[in-house]
Amino acid sequence: MQQKIIRNPWPHWAKAVSFTFLVLIVAFVFSNSLEIATESSQKSGSLLTLLLNRLPFLQGWFTEHILRKLGHFAEYTLVGMVLMLCLRSCTVRLWANITKPILGGVLIALTDETIQLFVAGRSGQISDVWLDSSGVCTGLLVMGGILLILERYFAHRRRDTRGTV
């Protein structure tokens, strides 16, 4: 007979930690959007130079535009991962409630691009909202998979140790 895996929401401190981490990441993302175009471009240019010096095979095709788009995707993948942790801290029914963090991630991306409309030299891009949203979905899937693997592993360990003294 197969035993049902019983999962519980995480303790209150885990919820506080995950939501605090989410607020910090969103603040970081928004602070990047508040930089004027010259500052932002200077940062990207410095990072690009560093990467091209350390990884010469990137020369010729890896541009500042690609670096910026990868940065967007990476930031929002992290946002998606933390949104999944926030969801897991509130409920055990991850996939039944997945639309909530997706919507949250899209709203963060829309807000991020809207902020850029009011910053000198910056512009809000619909293509960035799509890229950011795909990063959120990637982060949700990656962290959902990690949580599933970890929860099954620990459930298996609990079953194995029940009969031992």
Largest sheet: none
- Helix content range of the residues, please? over 70%
Q: Helix tally?
A: 5
Q: Low-confidence spans: pLDDT under 50, at least 5 residues?
A: none
Q: Please report the total strand number as a whole number.
A: 0
Q: Look at the structure and give the mean pLDDT.
A: 90
What are the secondary-structure elements, in order, as H or E? Answer: HHHHH
Shape estimate: globular
CA radius of gyration is: 20 Å
Please identify the structural class as seen in this structure.
mainly alpha
Please indicate the percent range of residues in DSSP E strands (runs of 2 or more).
Answer: under 5%
Query: What's the end-to-end separation, in Å?
Result: 23 Å
Set down the secondary structure blueprint:
Layout: H1 12-33, H2 37-54, H3 64-90, H4 99-116, H5 126-162
Helix pairs in contact: 1-3, 1-4, 3-4, 3-5, 4-5
Written overview of the protein:
- This protein has 165 residues and is mainly alpha-helical.
- The protein is 74% helix and 0% strand.
- It is built from five helices and no strands.
- It has helices spanning 12-33, 37-54, 64-90, 99-116, 126-162.
- Helix 1 (12-33) runs parallel beside helix 4.
- The radius of gyration is 20 Å and the shape is globular.
- The chain starts with 11 loop residues before the first helix and ends with a helix.
- 19% of the residues are buried.
- The mean pLDDT is 90.
